[in-house]
Amino acid sequence: MKTIIIIGSARRNGNTVKITQFVQEKTNWEVINLSDYHIGHYDYEHKNATDDFLPLMDKIVEQYDRFVFATPVYWYSMSGIMKVFFDRFTDLVSIRKDLGRALKGKQMAVISSSGGDNLGKQFWLPFARSAEYLEMIFIQGLHTELIEDKISAKEKNRILSFVKMIQDFKD
Predict the structure, then answer these.
(1) In angstroms, what CA-CA distances link 78 with 27, 40, 122, 134?
(2) Quick check: helix, strand or coil at residue 109?
(3) What pLDDT is stored for residue 150 in this prediction?
(4) Where are the alpha helices (DSSP H) in the chain?
(5) Among 141, 9, 23, which Cα is nearest to 82's?
(6) For residue 69, with 0-12 CB atoms within 10 Å meaning exposed, 13-18 middle and 19 or more buried, which class applies?
(7) Residues 144, 112 contacting (CB under 8 angstroms)
(8) Cut 0.85: pTM above it
């Protein structure tokens, strides 16, 4: 199964990117950073239909079977850029239904990061429910905690176990 990591972070060299680089080194999964694209907020008149979102989704849906979303935790939720990306999924059920339907059966997992281990179960709800609505398969999420901007040996082992679980996942 071909996998892509989709990073949504306000910092290009932050902890989420460090974790993603670690995963990429171990898996060779491809990575895209949402900061490299111009993706406007969702609007009901579809004024952003010519931004980078739909061409990016065309590429992602055509080339990948599994999406791993990587996001820092901001105010107990996914990052703003990741939220905008998820909001734009509405375009996939309105003006590009072919793309929305093509998500059926694809897999989704999430890696989050923050400076503390205070993440509640509710954090995963937008991901799990979005997957359910789009008829995707939500595998699981992993919350990571970096100390002094470093991935500890214990955290590396947790991440590697999570990666193996994703790779071995059968729906």
Answers:
(1) 24, 17, 11, 19
(2) strand
(3) 87
(4) 15-27, 53-63, 80-87, 89-92, 97-102, 125-133, 153-168
(5) 9
(6) buried
(7) yes
(8) yes
